[in-house]
Amino acid sequence: MSRYAIVYDEKLKEYDLGHGLKKDRHQNFIELLQQKKGCHPDFKIVSPSYATENDFKLIHTEAYIQRIETYESRDPYDTPLSHWSK
Fold it and tell me: What is the DSSP letter of 76?
């Protein structure tokens, strides 16, 4: 059994903030891990499972969730949100 899990999804290629956070950094990281797996075989790459609104309600108030949902349509913003990042 692997002790470490790397969560990765192809959708990460769509998330590009430019500068140091270019979209190819995720793919480059995964490729490097796969090349070096013999050096550290104790990890696996897994697909994410997306949280539901009920999952968020376990730790956040309804008011907080509604406030965050309004940020998707705002511009300018500090960290962009997309329809699939909610």
Answer: S
